[in-house]
Design goal:
heterodimer, A: mainly alpha, 13 helices, B: two-stranded antiparallel sheet, 2 strands
Chain lengths: ~260, ~210
């Protein structure tokens, strides 16, 4: 039950409350670039969701098997050269960025080849977006968030398992799809409007994105509400949640103090 | 090549005429994410500048060895190496800043500015040209970041670099330091820059 609640909250947080695009600003380039038509935006969103889930699977496996101190694979290999105690302390997390970007780039290549060969229909709908995705920050951001929950925790029991990692990545992708599809719907209507000349294109898109972000701020606090409603006894335990950005947290604290004199 | 821009022209172009943020719309993720204050914005600009300069120099040195179909992979791996260096450096000497910037330092790897400059300039030009291009683009990026950060920090908190510039009676527009403010500020500034561009092109056409 606890585990299911955790998964539910991680999914909800990733998809709506701390939306990847409108809260963390990752994946802005396709958000501005590929959001002209709803079909294209939906294809892009599906492609991102697909790749982000695979990248999460790979990066979680690499992190737990190879990178963290005492990981099975790295300590086994180091065991040939070093005494056992030193081998258990091998910490390769400094290599994580290089490993992740390489894993993402190569998995995108393989996914593209596989989809083109076995699912030509699918390739027709979102295959063209696949190469663009390598440089989409959302993918790397999901990998880094997962890494921070596997390596950066004080208590080893709090480290994320594969289920939580996949939930974060998949629903992060869903949140990206939601944001970009809403955006493209608005932009289709916008073509009928009289936008001032300097604002046409990216400028008006960003302003609309700001208004959407205000709307998505309305989800703030839904997670703690659900947690309090379903599990009154464990409201204090928030270690497994995605941490809000520290600056935003400070400001929210500040504004609540102002409101309650 | 006679009409290829020289090193100095490339340097100047990066600052305003081909500003990476306002003109080319590149690197928008850090532009939006870290501009809620001047300090994180300048740290980010310095990190991007360092990575851009080093990556451009290295790519320019090995440009004759690059295979066309593998070049993007080489670019990203080079960039990832320098980003790791920058990240470790910040974590060692500016720990608080590195905590604030969080995942946005590693996200420099997928910053389109750097890949774009490697592709457009460094993989075709000599070291001096590539380096001056990188410095120009980095200054342009820093200018863009600090313009957005100044607007957001002054309106959002009434302070600049943590020093109060507006009177205490100023009601802080908290929304400007929250995520929506980033979108709106960048959108309006982008519109403003386009407007100036339109006015200037009309003026020169007359």
């Amino acid at each position: 039950m606890m585990y299911l609640l955790d998964i539910l909250l991680i999914s909800l947080t990733a998809a709506l409350i701390n939306n990847f695009v409108l809260y963390y600003f990752v994946g802005i380039c396709p958000f501005v670039g590929v959001s002209r038509k709803v079909e294209m935006a939906f294809g892009m969103g599906c492609a991102v969701t697909f790749v982000i889930s695979i990248a999460a699977l790979i990066s979680w496996s690499i992190t737990t098997m190879v990178l963290i101190p005492g990981a099975p694979l790295s300590s086994f290999i180091a065991g040939f050269f070093l005494p056992e105690q030193a081998a258990a302390k091998i910490d390769l997390t400094v290599l994580s960025y290089i490993v992740y970007i390489f894993a993402i780039a190569s998995s995108v290549q393989f996914v593209e080849m596989y989809v083109r060969k076995y699912f030509p229909m699918l390739y027709g709908s979102f295959g063209v977006f696949l190469p663009l995705i390598t440089t989409n920050c959302a993918i790397l951001f999901a990998c880094l968030t997962i890494m921070s929950h596997v390596t950066g925790v004080d208590n080893p029991a709090d480290a994320w398992d594969l289920g939580r990692a996949i939930a974060l990545a998949f629903f992060g992708g869903v949140g990206f799809t939601i944001a970009i599809v809403i955006m493209s719907g608005i932009r289709e209507e916008l073509e009928l409007c009289d936008v001032p000349e300097p604002f046409q294109g990216a400028a008006i898109t960003l302003v609309i994105g700001g208004i959407l972000a205000i709307a998505f701020m309305g989800f703030t606090g839904v997670d703690s509400g659900i947690r309090a409603a379903l599990m009154p006894s464990v409201t204090e335990q928030v270690s497994t949640m995605i941490p809000p950005r520290p600056d935003v947290l400070a400001i929210l604290d500040l504004s609540s103090q102002v409101r309650q004199p | 090549m006679a009409d290829s821009p020289t090193a100095f022209e490339r340097f100047v172009q990066g600052i305003l005429p081909e500003n990476p943020v306002y003109r080319q719309l590149l690197g928008l993720c850090p532009t939006l994410a870290v501009t809620n204050g001047m300090k994180p914005a300048l740290t980010m600009a310095c990190s991007v500048g360092f990575v851009l300069l080093c990556a451009n120099i290295v790519i320019s040195l090995i440009r004759n060895l690059l295979k066309p179909h593998l070049r993007i992979v080489i670019f990203t791996l080079t960039i990832a190496t320098f980003v790791t260096i920058a990240d470790r450096f910040l974590a060692a000497y500016f720990f608080q800043m590195s905590k604030t910037l969080g995942p946005y330092i590693p996200l420099i790897i997928v910053n389109c500015i750097i890949i774009c400059r490697c592709e457009v300039c460094a993989s075709k030009q000599g070291v001096v040209t590539a380096a001056s291009d990188a410095i120009g683009q980095a200054i342009g990026f820093g200018l863009a970041l600090s313009s957005i950060a100044a607007v957001r920090e002054i309106l959002g908190t009434g302070m600049l670099f943590g020093i109060r510039v507006l009177p205490t009676a100023w009601p802080d527009w908290v929304i400007m330091v929250l995520p929506p403010g980033a979108f709106i500020t960048l959108g309006l500034l982008l519109g403003f820059v386009n407007w100036i561009g339109i006015i200037r092109s009309k003026g020169s056409a007359k």
